[in-house]
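subagent[fold] <- orchestrator: predict structure for attached chain, return tokens only, no commentary.
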Amino acid sequence: MTTDSTVLQGEASASDAPPLDKRQVRRRVFGLAAPVIGENLLQTMLGIVDTLLVAGLGAVALAGVGSALQVIYILLGALSALSVGASVVVAQAVGARDFAKASRFARQTLIWSVIIALPLTAIGLPLSPALIGIFGLPPDVSAVSVDYLSVTMGAIATLTVMLLASGVLRGAGDSRTPMLVTLLANVINVVLSWALIYGHFGLPAMGAVGSAWGTVVARAVGAVILVGVLLRGRNGVRVWGGSWVPGLAAIGAVLAIGLPTAVEEMLVITAFAALTPIVATLGTESLAAQRVVINILSLSFLPGIGFGLAATALVGQAVGARRPDEARAAVNIALRWAVAWMGSLGVLFLIFARPLTALFGDDPALVDAGSAAIMAVVLTQPFWAVTFVYAGALRGSGDTRTPLLITSAIMWLAVTIAFFTVRLIPQLWAVWAAFLVVGPFEAWLYWRAWRRAVLIRNP
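subagent[fold] -> orchestrator:
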């Protein structure tokens, strides 16, 4: 844990700090969480829209795009984690009312987002066939995956800049702008992907790879707009002016928080990717159903992600302002609402599992496999809500090591359980049932970790 987080381990807040206003804290939680939920819903919709549009091309195209997205999600998770690092350092500077420092971190984040993207493109583009080859896919599915992944890897800078700029804005207390920009990106993606997949508006019919091009262009537009917002400034944080020379100290502060989180995310998403060859043994229909299940369940994660990121930003600001009482109140509020929302969505998905799965295709085998898998995993929702919020709170305090250890260990435990279970029960639902087994234990570990972090003497 960094030295900034000692405020959560027994140090008193500043003597002249105003008394805690829980209603104000609640408004701040929802003011950050609601747009973050909206933004992540829209980010998720980019993948879901691609899946829905490609589904019209058949199971091969659907499985191919889904497999490529497994690799992309590893990069997305790592880059999102770096954006968390940027969000925390900016939030702590804003909480301390040091806007010059916050602006410097914001500027350096933009510079390094481009620097980071260059080697990712140089390494990832030629390695696309080898990365897809890890999954052991049928040749026709593999060809679709390689084409899709190559397009995305060639334009990874658009994703990098968009994610890190959004993280800076959230740290400054503005989660509304990233949401609106992502909304615009979704509109562009829907229209352009549809046109490029099927050949409308005079554009060529590119098939599944057309959805990749549509997403790349949509993210490029979003990245340009977010950079423009930061150049003009938001809530006292402004990147215009100052030195644009890359600084190791600034990126070091971001990486100190973001790198362990990036490693955590990569291990988690790699664990999900490791499920692909396990599911592949069940056939192409189950592989396509796996993509559908992930899309549907990703919607249920949105409240947890939103309240978790709100906890990260508000705990970070409370650390900067030396207000442990605000940190504790914000986390308690976020936790209650995350559990309520994710639990409710779990019930809805349990009831409507078959109709939701059928939206992605009418293949009876796909619908049977997908709906059974959804029903097997929805009971894990409340436990995942606890995980999202407590993990976000610990990161906001500067402790990224604990989430790294807990989440990565639990995820790979679930993969191990799935590996053996599917040999006894060769069904997709058996793979997802592993998460119900480990979910309660993961939530308990996070509860204990946060409880240790907030051992503050009662007045």
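orchestrator: received. Logging for downstream: Residues 25 and 330 are 6 Å apart (CA to CA). The chain has one domain: 3-453.
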